[in-house]
Amino acid sequence: MPLADKVCVVTGASSGIGYQTAFDLAGEGARVCVVARRKERLEDLLQRMPGSGHSMAVTDVSERDEVKALVTHVTDEHGRCDVLINNAGFSGERPLTEAGAVDDLKAMMDTNFYGTLYCTAEFLPMLIDSAPSNVVNVASMAGRLAIGGAPGYSASKFAVVGFSEALYFQLRDKGVCVSVVEPGLIPTEGFPQTPVLSDPVMKYALGSVEGVSKAIRSAISGRKMERVVPRWYYALQVPRILAPPLYRLAQRKLVTPKQEDYL
Ligand SMILES: NC(=O)c1ccc[n+]([C@@H]2O[C@H](COP(=O)([O-])OP(=O)(O)OC[C@H]3O[C@@H](n4cnc5c(N)ncnc54)[C@H](OP(=O)(O)O)[C@@H]3O)[C@@H](O)[C@H]2O)c1
Hints:
The chain is α/β, with parallel strands linked by helices. It has helices at residues 16-27, 39-48, 64-78, 101-129, 151-171, 194-197, 209-222, 237-242, 244-255; strands spanning 7-11, 31-36, 55-58, 83-86, 133-138, 176-183, 226-229.
């Protein structure tokens, strides 16, 4: 699907993957509505984006009323929605034994999963009207493999993956393609990947915001259900499926330090 003149809504556009994706979509001639909570960041992005006909909406996607107001804004400004990219999200959690940890996890679920649900549900009538149209949900490799010792974040992204996969089959006949993009380790403001950047071997496992933006745009144009970035991360899922005990052994030994903190 060519993106020129399509109306694309990008959540979490004030930094990182969302910022780059909004910028690149504008470069392909799309009209982009950029969404996040930090107004100044969105104003700055609007000034830099190539093309014209863009807009911004300061929205907390975890608040359903704000998402409804976002739909009103897109209806008034653009009259349609061809592509919805649910990218807003964050990570960061403490051991479950610490005070406030459960509330933190709930807040993460509210943005990472419920934000995706609210935006998808509220934009769906417009997306069906604009079909062929696309929804792209930015999940994570942590939504396929619960590695990294972050149970709340993994749970929120597993929810996004399951939601996306089921919705893909449900909406196919209506002309709405639902894709899920699963980034690996991408250095951004919210995910600085500091230890990985300074590790002489692991640094080669890093992807880039440009790579994720490209995968998102290729999921849209190719109407693909799933994209993993970097692509070779797909292979990491194989031991989980074919040899679960081996996968768990490797995870215990190599990938998840201090797992006992979360018990
Ligand atoms: N970087 C990675 O390694 C990596 C790996 C796998 C998956 N991901 C996923 O990729 C997505 C983008 O992350 P990123 O790496 O680009 O991080 P980032 O630079 O921190 O960007 C996160 C974006 O989400 C927005 N956001 C957070 N909570 C929000 C809320 N309640 N309502 C509206 N916007 C909200 C932030 O904007 P405001 O603060 O201005 O609202 C920001 O624009 C996330 O869903 C993340 O889970 C990232």
